[in-house]
Input
Amino acid sequence: MILKGGWIVQDYRRNIRDGAVVIEDNKIIDVGYTDEIMRRHGGAGHDIIDIKGKIVIPGIINSHTHISMTLLRGYADDLLLKDWLEKYIWPYEKLLTGSDFELGAMLGAIESIASGVTNVCSMYHYDRDRNEATALLKVGMRGTIGIAIFTWDAEGSLNNFKDAVKRFHGYNGLIRIASCPHAPYTVDPDLWIKSEELRRELLEKYGDKGRIIVTSHIAEDWNEVEMVRKRFNVDIPSDSILRYLENLGVLSSDFLAAHGIYLNEVDIEVMKRYDVKLAHNPVANMKLGMGYADTPKLIDNGIKVSLGTDGPASNNTLDMFETMKFAALINKPIKRDPRVTPANLIFRMATEYGALNLGYTSLGKIEPGYIADIVILDFNKPHLTPIYDIYSHLVYACKASDVDTVIINGKIVYESKAFHDIDIYEIMDRVESRSMELYEKVREVNS
Ligand SMILES: [Zn+2]
Output
């Protein structure tokens, strides 16, 4: 397949006006000026797609979310994190079955693709037959599926993780499984150690199909250190959660911390030493009133920061264009410096760093040898005219609704704003009726 005549944004600094991309199977094999590419590849046997006037970018990567939670979108808002989780979210989630995990995740995958996201890192509960992985496979989306690990179901969680790796890791070249100890305050020290031992064992066995990363909610709450101390009666030197995790032996460059709002100097020093990554979720952090991550400082310290929406119950969408804009804006007034987090850096966080943070080596750029996850945007719009700087538009002006076509693993899954094989209205109807049923049930339980 050749996409020709568009503006190709290869990465955060290289872009070609009137360029073309050649895709063979699931890989990008060539990229350059249209006339050069057509000279090299213009013969028969290619599907040539004219993309004149359109912008081609690497697929956007949402590196922290819970896509099944579309079922809970708008169900409980404007509440303190503790009340939100304990009084609303967890009681509702107790009622969910495997088919709910799958249904919610299908809606989340559809929403993501239609807004230019080709790869999500999503952590949730697991059912062996129907879960977030089966949902992504039905829709044809790439994802790292994190299996939630909690002390309240320690053995069950570890069995789920093991089962998910065996069944789904590497499936169709689209799915990877991750270990997901939920947070330091919901996972006891012993379970942290056991889950990490299991991850290393599974990585040894299945690592040829891709990294099995570990990801967890870290330093989201200003009370986290105290909660962990009290709940598990443990020592937390220098009030540093990262030092505590280091002492448990669970850190590595495969560790992706989500949030990282309350990180002190020791935390940052430990992250640097282990090359621990960070998924920054500015919209959910603001909505829950938790605070904001000091991304300029983390970036200055060499920490790779990617972007996430967090779940659709705390955002309340999976819109990464909105997240890019918030990520660019959130630190500027606090630092009183508009030069921090410039547009091209934010774009890099949403693409190249997203891929690296999920353990991919050839993803997140439009470059020969890279996996063909590509998004085509329609820039023929009033709010995108004129164009001086492509990165400025991608971060500050472009909207999710400007996504026109999406290619994942070399296959067109969304074309001219329509899905090929999926009836999105049927899925929306099912979500609507099932969520109303669950809402009645949870009200009964709570009363
Ligand atoms: Zn989260």
